[in-house]
Amino acid sequence: MMTRKEIAINKLKSLGETIIEDVSQNKVPAVRVPSRGTSNIVYDENRRHYVLGDRYGQRSLGNVKQIKKIGQMVYMANFCKQLVEREKTATLRELYYVSEGWEVEFGTQDESNIVGEDLEVTLGMTREDLGLMPEEDGASVYGDLTIKEDDLEINALRSGKSGYTISPTINEVEFVDHNVQRVIAVETMGMFHRMVQESAYKKFDTLIVGLKGQAARATRRFLKRVNDELGLPVYICNDGDPWGFHIAQVIISGSAKLAHVNHDLATPDAKFLGVTASDIIKYDLPTDPLKDIDVLRLKELLKDPRYRYETWKMEIKKMLKIGKKAEQQSFSKYGLEYVVDTYFPEKLEQME
Amino acid sequence: MMTRKEIAINKLKSLGETIIEDVSQNKVPAVRVPSRGTSNIVYDENRRHYVLGDRYGQRSLGNVKQIKKIGQMVYMANFCKQLVEREKTATLRELYYVSEGWEVEFGTQDESNIVGEDLEVTLGMTREDLGLMPEEDGASVYGDLTIKEDDLEINALRSGKSGYTISPTINEVEFVDHNVQRVIAVETMGMFHRMVQESAYKKFDTLIVGLKGQAARATRRFLKRVNDELGLPVYICNDGDPWGFHIAQVIISGSAKLAHVNHDLATPDAKFLGVTASDIIKYDLPTDPLKDIDVLRLKELLKDPRYRYETWKMEIKKMLKIGKKAEQQSFSKYGLEYVVDTYFPEKLEQME
Questions:
Q1: How many A×B Cβ pairs under 8 Å?
Q2: Do residues A123 and A171 share a domain?
Q3: pLDDT tier at A4 (50, 70, 90 boundaries)?
Q4: ipTM of the predicted structure?
Q5: Could you give the number of structural domains in chain B?
Q6: Chain A residues whose beta carbon lies within 8 Å of the beta carbon of residue B189
Q7: Which residue from A142, A329, B87, B335 has the highest number of Cβ atoms inside 10 Å of its Cβ?
Q8: Where do the H-state alpha helices sit in chain A?
């Protein structure tokens, strides 16, 4: 089996070879770039995440307007090939500055980011596979999982109270060993530290993942990998509001914007554990009233194919009805330990 | 010598004892709270950071308006005492929800945050010493430093590519061993990963600290401790713009808002390594023009006592003159390795 590195190099090479072949056959070189316009983003019922449809655009050197775009793409592909071969990575920001030395220039970083996406979508690989990294690290992980980065083995129970940080290069990490039954991802680092402090990792034989709000790509990739490769069920516990719902949903069903790489990022079997509108009622949580923007967002979610399951619809409608939202830390009303001693055990029993 | 924990418990107890003593002597109980109004925040030339002046406010139970504030403060102090005794921590958010069960209520979290600051300033300790933690973790650290959290030894060279994460409980961490000559803190995680990848920790015998923008309190405490306790010089490399300057300056001289705890957070001997206006010129870096808000901010800095040294004034004036700013990642114009192979060695030689 080819490694992801070999696949990346092959795909990058073949992009160039296609162009050379066209030239040697006296054809006008062109590159087929899958369209990522809204009309080509479809929710795939079988895969349970957004994918790209089969519409393509043609970038041709015969079209004056497209010559620069192709030039930029080829330069970038060449740079990525060097990165992958040398086992290096660069941030999108670094790439933008590196391109100052190229014969095709980018006006702004937005322009180079878009060409980066073109490359992702054309090759069907994440830009991380091509050596292009986001600035930010992923989530924090705490619990008995041993991973390997190059020659270094790291146990996420022995990395400190803030856990092991998922790096953008998570694809190259090897899972060596683990002694957990499940994964619980939580939205805030406040809740992460609570769970570490209350020994939730022991009580529930679980990995604890601190998402830090909207999950980074590296975090989504990590959750998918532990689910796929280690067969661990993934539960997500966020604030009980439309934003918390959607942070979970993007982990589960992917985002429309990244339809072309959701096959690497979405974890359709991950489950939203809470905080639900039902939890708000059952546990009589301290709440805030829904703001107009919350109501608007909840109504949008009702129309979103990712929320088509009855349980989601019911919870969204219930939240609209009670007109209230609650944060995951609001369980502390009953004492700091309550969320780990009472809420999680009750919810996990319901779900497993 | 008393541990910080013992000091915290003593101070919390004596707050209550003062009140009880007043009552038993038939006096109206009152608490002296140092004023943190702007007129009481002064730059201390000897300590080289902001401190609070000697103005106090009196919170008296004889004043109807102040009864609730004192009640909240005593409840919070009691909660903190329990936290410290039980070796637990809580986020400010959790504290706010816990207070729902108290007989004195907080209208909003802003209100409970302010009482938390009152407690800090009255006792002269950081709220972290009192068990109250911020939500967010601190910086990432990479390099040959071994620390001890409870019984667990962790080496920051063996915590993964994203390094060891400074947790809000950094005060309880013990420095066990190290094999470095200095500390280089950088503003972005992009630069952090670049330095890890180019083995900067070996080349410069350095710890690498990824600040992630404005340094968290835990990060500032960490930098102060490695400077004080291990005698390591601290260098800060940020973007070459007023915001990068100020991220460095807050590490060096503390912030006005935290004048009451700067003695625990400021590292007056830390040095700003770059990116300076002189660097922009010398290295012919890719730049962006200063925006109006940048110019405004630079002019503010010129009036700030923390920037009174000639080198700072000269660099600020030079930046205003060239009208340009540059990001730290812009060195990639000369290739990804340039910043580590050329820029850092040249700057460190100048400064050491």
A1: 137
A2: no
A3: confident
A4: 0.93
A5: 2
A6: 135-137
A7: A329
A8: 4-24, 64-85, 92-98, 109-123, 189-197, 200-203, 217-230, 242-253, 262-265, 277-282, 292-303, 310-322, 338, 344-351
